[in-house]
């Protein structure tokens, strides 16, 4: 069997540049590559230069160089790192052991935050009160409620934006989650969180709107998205029904991605975005805009 066919077979099974490079290295040791160097032979076959593993901050793909941001992860992104909390506290006694105090302030539980986008609503309504859910929107909310119930989790609270479409969506969902407290919050109303990059031509709020909405939505993020308090003993599951702009901004901020990239994501109506915040402060995105529980003909993004 020719070497080309061996590489094609191996890559078809495992895939990836690592497999190709490893196979080529073995071939070079057996003299299959002739006089050409490993990188020259690979480039002639694939059009790519060999990727060097674990060589930050830059690597090359063809003629294009990709640079690592090298910004790292801010462990105290929510200002709740145990060591920082100890430093901010006034010591009642000089005999207090800082290590003991730090240990006492360490969170023990994981927070799970479910961000639900409201269902389809009447775009032609005159003002917020008339922008209520359509018949399809109400049906979408039913599917979302059923999905959340099917997960079998013990939900702690269901918070919703005070806008009509989010409030109605939350009330429909709550039918499937008996006993879960309903709470409304003005901070979660839709708005313009930050000027998007790249800009779009069809949506250009005034600078004043970014200034006002941005501060409010950032306040909502800081209020709802953070690691658990040290007093919390069990993992929590919280539902927040709000709006696409708010959810996309929350995701960027929680993952420490550039927040101005929020508009690059799209979310279906009634979709579920699941964030997990570990006691260490590490954040994971379990799902983004999941709407696979709805039939295809029920999906919308208005």
From TrEMBL:
InterPro entries, alphabetically?
His_Pase_superF_clade-1 (IPR013078), His_PPase_superfam (IPR029033), Mito_Ser/Thr_phosphatase (IPR051021)
Question: Which biological processes are named by the entry's GO terms?
Answer: positive regulation of mitochondrial fission; programmed cell death
What molecular function terms (GO) are annotated for this protein? protein serine/threonine phosphatase activity
Keywords on this record?
Answer: Hydrolase, Membrane, Mitochondrion, Mitochondrion outer membrane, Necrosis
Which reactions fall under this protein's catalytic activity? O-phospho-L-threonyl-[protein] + H2O = L-threonyl-[protein] + phosphate; O-phospho-L-seryl-[protein] + H2O = L-seryl-[protein] + phosphate
Tell me the compartments it is located in: Mitochondrion outer membrane
Determine if Ligase is one of this entry's keywords: no
* EC number per UniProt: 3.1.3.16
Q: Could you state one GO cellular component term attached to this entry?
A: mitochondrial outer membrane
**Which Pfam family, giving just one, matches this sequence?**
His_Phos_1
- Extract the CDD domains matched here: HP_PGM_like (cd07067)
Keyword flag Mitochondrion: yes
Enzyme type, top EC level: hydrolase
Q: Say which domain of life the source belongs to.
A: Eukaryota
> What family does this belong to?
Belongs to the phosphoglycerate mutase family. BPG-dependent PGAM subfamily.
Q: Which PANTHER family match?
A: PHOSPHOGLYCERATE MUTASE-RELATED (PTHR20935), SERINE_THREONINE-PROTEIN PHOSPHATASE PGAM5, MITOCHONDRIAL (PTHR20935:SF0)
Name of the protein this chain belongs to? Serine/threonine-protein phosphatase PGAM5, mitochondrial
The species this protein was found in: Anguilla anguilla
Its taxonomic path starts at: Eukaryota, Metazoa, Chordata, Craniata, Vertebrata
């Amino acid at each position: 069997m020719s070497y080309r066919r061996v590489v094609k077979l191996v890559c078809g099974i495992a895939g990836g540049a690592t497999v190709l490079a490893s196979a080529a290295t073995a071939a070079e040791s057996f003299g299959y590559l002739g006089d050409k160097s490993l990188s020259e032979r690979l480039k002639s076959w694939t059009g790519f230069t060999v990727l060097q593993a674990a060589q930050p901050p830059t690597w090359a793909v063809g003629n294009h160089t990709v640079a690592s941001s090298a910004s790292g992860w801010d462990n105290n992104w929510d200002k709740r790192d145990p060591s920082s909390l100890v430093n901010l506290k006034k010591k009642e006694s000089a005999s207090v052991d800082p290590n003991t105090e730090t240990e006492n302030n360490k969170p023990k539980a994981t927070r799970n935050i479910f961000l639900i986008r409201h269902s389809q609503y009447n775009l032609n309504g005159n003002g917020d009160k008339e922008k209520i859910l359509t018949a399809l929107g109400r049906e979408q909310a039913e599917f979302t409620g059923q999905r959340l119930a099917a997960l079998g989790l013990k939900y702690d609270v269901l918070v919703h934006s005070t806008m009509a479409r989010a409030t109605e969506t939350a009330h429909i969902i709550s039918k499937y989650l008996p006993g879960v407290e309903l709470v409304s919050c003005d901070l979660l109303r839709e708005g313009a969180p930050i000027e998007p990059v790249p800009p779009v031509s069809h949506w250009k709020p005034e600078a004043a709107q970014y200034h006002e909405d941005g501060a409010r939505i950032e306040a909502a993020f800081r209020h709802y998205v953070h690691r658990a308090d040290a007093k919390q003993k069990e993992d929590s599951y919280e539902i927040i029904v709000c709006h696409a702009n708010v959810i996309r901004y929350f995701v960027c901020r929680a993952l420490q991605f550039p927040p101005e990239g929020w508009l690059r994501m799209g979310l279906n109506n009634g979709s579920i975005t699941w964030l997990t915040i570990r006691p260490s402060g590490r954040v994971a995105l379990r799902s983004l805009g999941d709407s696979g529980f709805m039939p295809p003909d029920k999906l919308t993004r208005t």
